[in-house]
Input
Amino acid sequence: MSEATPKQIDVLVVGAGFAGMYMLHRLRALGVSAQVVEAGSDVGGTWYWNRYPGARCDVPSVEYSYSFSDELQQDWDWSEVMAGQPEILEYANHVAERFDLRRDIKFDTRVTSAHYSEEQRRWTVTTDAGDVYDAHYCVMATGCLSMPNTPDIEGASDFEGAVYHTGQWPHEGVDFSEVSVGIIGTGSSGIQAIPVIAEDAKHLTVFQRTPNYTMPAHNRQMTDEFRAEAKANYATIRQQQRDSQAGIVGYGFGFGGADLIMPSDHLLETTAEERAKAVDEEGFGAIRRFIDIGLNPEANEMACDMYRTQLGRIVNDDATAEGLKPRDYPIGCKRPVIDTDYYETYNRDNVTLVDLRQGGIERITRTGVQTAQGHFEFDALVYATGFDAMTGALLNIDIKGRDAKPLGDVWEAGPRTYLGLQVAGFPNLFMITGPGSPSVLSNMIVSIEQHVDWITDCIAHMGDRQLQAIEATPEAEDAWIHHVNDVAKGTMFTSPSCNSWYLGANIPGKPRIFMPYVGGVGAYRKKCDEVVENDYEGFELTA
Ligand code: FAD
Ligand code: N01
Output
């Protein structure tokens, strides 16, 4: 491939999911030149790639949507409380058309390297299409969950049937009606896909390594009345989201907020009879009221017991129910999962659970999966095995900062950032929802908008003062990492028995570090604003 003439640009943005799309919109309004490069063939990111059956968001769509344009939120009508993937992708397409975004996005192109020149104070960015960009700023809108993880299981290439990954689902869909299917993984993707594939497939065999705690979604069609009410109240809803812990106020769940339960009771103060009665009356919902579940391991284990009792009532076959029961780790250590008819699906005749705790996968064969419990045959294999989360997409790019130092070296023991926005030694490089920010612990659109706004204001500030480079100081980075670790300490997220992708525990060899910021989007936004008010405290700005 011949070296192309570098294209001069103010800002190069990598990724055209919700983060990259909004970043482009804001940069254009600022009057700087911007180019987005996207590996996929169109916009939408997560919602472009994850087209598996049953894919949908678990945040009310009234809240999981952009707030930056009132015209947009007034015009767009969500059909369900929590929209499915096709509708969210339609929304992304609508935004791209409405704001004429595509003309500055280069699709089907992957950024392969980004190298900083100290002399020029600029980034040289190259792509697999042979493009070279010479950019003042580089914004990584590469997504926290965009690098699919396919585990390295012996014999994987021997399998002769069709193979799918939930995070790279074929655009034309898959007809499983005459097909027996094996699925590996029971995280959010597996739990969403299993009930829908089971309805379609001849037979479905679920290979479950760790059972999850999952709550019924109670999703429903949106009513005209609620849509009108939400639109009339958007200003308040958005403000509350921004000030909240997780960017969710639950307004959309409750058709007016009535169903949102803020936990306040203490499970440790209840009697066994009271707990049994609560499960009788409220099912899984019984544990939502108790605040100490998130704080006290003993209360948490009581909640797990209540959870297992309710699970046992739904699943008819005792052995299958036992196999599905999560044990030995607390509720709340992993990303919450919500489902539609997940446990009910195991009452179907065409579904088999393989609880790998009773004997793990030994290898994949020509016709199925060999486990220590026996061989299971099927025609098609689905990996619902998640992502190399938060750092995967960033480290997949050859990023070199000052003195040609690779990001991979700097992050050898785990990601280090200041505010999840920048890394010391990598001037003029920003991350959207980077590790060390609330990101995946929040409604991500709220966090994306906050980061994009902050970065836009920062670039405007730099331009106004004719500054050339901005870089996090090592001291500010150290202090922030210390704070991030401090607030995570003692939470269920960092419980010793927790193996979550938040900790990198799903990828063999990945450093075990709790990556997101637990402090909440409201507090975090305040901190980011204070940094600006204090003249970009913790950053070094160079003329
Ligand atoms: P993404 O949407 O991941 O977009 C990043 C883009 O960057 C991708 O299109 C990718 O192709 C591109 N890219 C990456 N590397 C390169 C490269 N080197 N060169 C070129 N392009 C590159 N969050 C919630 O808050 N609520 C939910 O209900 C929710 N549901 C989810 C359901 C699923 C199935 C998944 C996987 C995630 C879900 N998330 C949810 C998280 C979701 O990722 C975010 O909400 C949001 O969509 C992220 O947007 P983004 O633009 O930051 O990243
Ligand atoms: O991935 P996961 P995901 N052998 O990592 C198993 C978002 N999301 O795609 O737990 C056998 O959670 C693994 O087992 P274990 C959301 O943020 C949201 O489901 O590691 N099994 C696990 O069961 C979510 O958290 C929605 O023991 C193996 C599964 O694969 C994130 O994306 C929907 C294995 C992976 O679960 C990722 O979810 C979908 C092996 N070698 C996604 N390797 C919403 O509803 C892995 N597994 C909003």
Summary: The pocket of flavin-adenine dinucleotide (ligand 1) is lined by residues 14-20, 37-40, 45-46, 48, 50, 55, 57-59, 64, 110-111, 141-146, 189, 393, 397, 432-433, 443-444, 448 (CB under 6 Å). The chain has a mean pLDDT of 95. The domain at 7-147+388-468+517-542 is CATH 3.50.50.60 (FAD/NAD(P)-binding domain).
